[in-house]
Design brief:
Blueprint lengths: L3 E9 L1 E2 L11 E2 L2 H19 L3 E11 L7 H14 L7 E6 L6 H9 L4 E7 L3 H6 L6 H13 L5 E7 L6 H14 L3 E6 L7 H7 L7 H17 L3 E4 L2 E3 L6 H7 L5 E3 L4 E4 L2 E5 L3 H9 L5 E6 L2 H12 L6 E2 L7 H9 L3 E4 L2 E4 L1 H5 L1 H6 L3
Parallel strand pairs: 1-4, 1-11, 2-3, 4-5, 5-6, 6-7, 7-8
Antiparallel strand pairs: 8-10, 9-10, 12-13, 13-14, 15-17, 16-17
Bound molecules: S-adenosylmethionine and iron/sulfur cluster.
S-adenosylmethionine binds next to β4, β6 and β7.
Length: 368
């Protein structure tokens, strides 16, 4: 019996312009490459369909910037996907957009093809900080794009924000949060800027031109929790806040340890006892798929114990926590975290306390 896959990810590696802090696999949009890429993704889907029973409950088009594709290109790709898949169980279909690549025509097409959730990268509403971040859009453009998404009928929208951006003041961050709340999105992702290897920001960080202060990061993280939870959002994962019932089902599936299939260059998949990643190069990806060769560049076996450890590490980042029983092999560590005030019982489960959330990475690391 082939494994049934309920969560599908599609990686679109194009961006209107590459941001200096970002390490996701992407390249500046190149119209000449795109049709070959779209055909390759559909071909990879056909190949995987022979191996797995694909009946997605969630689909996530991420990147890169899926909305960097033109309206006809999105129509081609999404229609091709619809023709090939049984979508009778589909509950959530998210597509990531950059505010510079939103139009009413594009948004209406996506809505019509079944996309029912949009995740848009706003990062900040402050013009100066948008420049620091090398973004291609203004705050006003992001606001217009948000209004267009509503006009096209999207009633489930996430806005991404970033804090601890170089030169950002507490007041600027607070203003960005308040402006976002006033727009009433269903979901807000608030990420602490991280200096990722192989980015311009990382090079500037290693030269000492940019600095990081973990106390300042923690301070902004705490005020984020207070502001967003005070405005009726539920912090259902360390960086993710949703109005009740609006959690991202796709990301929750990752965090709770479900299997998922990823298509496209650099996409990860985890199915049963195996995890793999496709090659992070669009031309090589298309060549290999065209020759019906595997696009995988990395693969590892995952024991039940590794998957269980990952479920604990990621599950603890969510407000659902993890059952005490699942952590039975780590009784001593769990007792220390409880005594230290980092974990607390909630029914059968253990969840991070407020101070535990500030240490989420190191608490999680203990179990992997
Ligand atoms: C794939 S992008 C979202 C869609 C679109 N590409 C855009 O930027 O508008 C995913 C999100 O990851 C976050 N992100 C990217 N690099 C980051 C970094 N170095 N530190 C923290 N957050 C980061 C940003 O908030 C970004 O919106
Ligand atoms: S943040 Fe978004 S737009 Fe910027 S480079 Fe990364 S994926 Fe592309």
């Amino acid at each position: 019996m082939p494994a049934t896959i309920r969560h599908l990810y599609v990686h679109i590696p194009f961006c209107p312009k590459v941001c200096p802090y970002c390490s996701f696999y992407k390249e500046a949009s190149d119209r000449n490459k795109t049709q070959r890429f779209l055909d390759s993704v559909l071909e990879e889907l056909d190949q995987r369909k022979r191996e797995f029973d694909l009946r997605p409950e969630t689909i996530f088009f991420g990147g890169g910037t899926p909305s960097a594709l033109s309206t006809p290109q999105l129509d081609y790709l999404l229609s091709g996907l619809r023709e090939r898949l049984d979508l009778s169980r589909l509950r959530e279909w998210t597509l990531e957009m950059n505010p510079a690549t939103v139009s009413l025509e594009k948004a209406s097409l996506l809505r019509g093809l079944g996309v029912n959730r949009i995740s848009m990268g706003v990062q900040s509403w402050d013009e100066g900080l948008l420049k620091v971040l090398g973004r291609v859009h203004s705050g006003a453009q992001a606001e217009r794009s948000y209004a267009i998404l509503r006009e096209a009928g999207f009633d489930n929208i996430n806005l991404d924000l970033m804090f601890a951006v170089p030169t950002q003041t507490r007041e600027q961050w607070q203003a960005s949060l308040e402006k976002t709340i006033a727009l009433q999105p269903e979901h807000i992702a608030a990420y602490c800027l991280t200096y990722e290897e192989d980015t311009d920001f990382f090079a500037r960080f290693t030269r000492g031109e940019l600095t990081q202060d973990s106390g300042w990061d923690a301070d902004l993280f705490e005020s984020t929790m207070d502001t967003l939870c005070g405005a009726g959002f539920v912090q259902y994962e360390i960086s993710n806040y949703a109005k009740p019932g609006r959690d991202c089902l796709h990301n929750l599936a990752y965090w709770l340890g479900s299997d998922y299939l990823g298509l496209g260059p650099s996409a990860f998949s985890t199915i049963g006892g195996r995890r793999w990643q496709n090659v992070a190069d669009t031309s090589i990806y298309c060549d290999r798929i065209g020759k019906t060769e595997s696009a995988e560049s990395f693969s590892e076996a995952l024991s039940d114990q590794i998957r269980q450890s990952e479920r604990i590490a990621f599950g603890l980042r969510t407000n659902r926590g993890v059952s005490r029983e699942a952590m039975a092999s780590w009784n001593r560590e769990v007792a220390q975290f409880e005594a230290g005030g980092f974990l607390q019982a909630e029914g059968e489960n253990l969840v991070l306390t407020r101070s535990g959330k500030l240490m989420a990475d190191s608490v999680g690391q203990t179990f992997v």
